[in-house]
Write a structure and sequence with these properties.
There is one protein chain. The chain is about 40% helix and about 10% strand. A 5-stranded antiparallel β-sheet has the order 1-2-3-5-4, with helices on one face. Strand 2 and strand 3 form a beta hairpin. The longest helix is centred in the last third of the chain and has 24 residues. The termini are far apart.
């Protein structure tokens, strides 16, 4: 095991080329004599490396380095659900191989197709540069989620992938536990305690279970920018399971820019501006309700819960930063962002009472 394994997660982290070459050879995936890699990680979760050999380019995904929260960054979970969705209407990359043995590169990993398209980021440099295109993107996100939730998860081999019964109760227990595990390493977060208690008191009854992506949001979707814009891939399935379909809707819309947001929330959850053409959250909910028949009467719970989870994830990243386990410069800002997220979640809780 080389010195790469002492590296921190970040843009300079590398992979063990010799170990990966051995895996490719043993799995008969090709001649890896000329194998090379480059770190193309954009997000702040699993590492993404582009590996080149035999004139082709594949993507390798592996967990970040350092101690992980339970079930976090589960790349083999990603690999299983991507494999199950290969021949469905859900656009996902082709997967080539998965490996749960850390003996090759120091961590589990999988290899998948390198997709070429556009992902909409907050910098504004995307094809979604007219009201018509932004409207198409808004409708496309809802329609994509509905398509995913229509997949018969048992028929595609995901029976046992999750436990649908009691999903929300388990989720709430899990995230409350992760909060309790994290704050001893960071600082007290009293507003999060208020949100936690409100969520416990307002747990709704779930609709029939579907596949849950777990991180369904705009920057995990790749588009073909041709007219009309079309989704070509959904990424980052590490949190996927079988459970309450409204969890994904709440997560996506917690990130969604809305002109009605308080200024204190803008820039904390997303830097994407609520530009003309993007549907409002209310309009997104109406389209989802019309296409699924599911009632949105308890949406405040899913919205607040999404912000609560996001705050806990960010606080976990902040803990890694404080303990020197990552050099990602984003995480220094979590000192202010997490309390601001807690306030945004509490505002949703309070608005639900009116």
């Amino acid at each position: 095991m080389g010195s790469a394994y002492q590296e921190k997660t970040g843009p300079n982290a590398s992979i063990d080329i010799e170990g990966l070459r051995r895996f490719i050879r043993e799995r008969k995936l090709g001649d890896a004599a000329d194998l090379r890699s480059e770190n193309i990680s954009f997000g702040h979760s699993n590492e993404v490396h582009l590996v080149h050999f035999e004139g082709k380019s594949w993507v390798l995904r592996r967990p970040p380095r350092g101690p992980l929260l339970p079930t976090a960054h589960d790349v083999m979970r990603e690999y299983r659900v991507l494999s199950a969705l290969q021949d469905t209407a859900v656009p996902v990359p082709r997967v080539y191989a998965g490996c749960d043995d850390p003996g090759y590169i120091g961590a589990p990993f999988y290899l998948m197709e390198y997709m070429r398209g556009e992902v909409i980021r907050a910098d504004g440099n995307s094809f979604a540069n007219t009201p018509e295109r932004r409207k198409a993107v808004s409708e496309g996100m809802i329609d994509l989620l509905v398509t995913l939730q229509k997949v018969d998860w048992r028929a595609v081999g995901l029976d046992g992938f999750g436990r649908p019964d009691g999903y929300l109760e388990r989720q709430l227990r899990r995230w409350v536990d992760q909060l309790a595990r994290t704050v001893p390493h960071t600082r007290p977060l009293p507003v999060m305690d208020k949100v936690r208690d409100w969520l416990k008191a307002h747990l709704p009854e779930s609709p029939a279970a579907t596949i849950v992506h777990g991180d369904f949001k705009l920057d995990n979707v790749m588009w073909s920018p041709a007219e009309p814009p079309r989704v070509i891939a959904v990424f980052d399935w590490e949190m996927s399971t079988i459970g309450d379909p409204l969890a994904d809707l709440g997560w996506m819309l917690s990130y969604w820019p809305d002109p009605g947001d308080d200024p204190s929330r803008r820039g904390v959850v997303t830097n994407l501006a609520p530009e003309p053409g993007y549907l409002t959250r209310r309009e997104m909910l109406a389209r989802y309700e019309a296409n699924t028949g599911r009632r949105m009467t308890d949406f405040a719970f899913y919205h607040a819960f999404a912000l609560f989870k996001l705050a806990i994830i960010m606080e976990g990243s902040y803990a890694r930063f404080l303990h020197g386990q990552t050099d990602d410069p984003l995480f220094v800002h979590m000192k202010q962002r997490v309390p601001a997220l807690a306030e945004a979640a509490w505002a949703v809780c309070e608005s639900a009472a009116h």
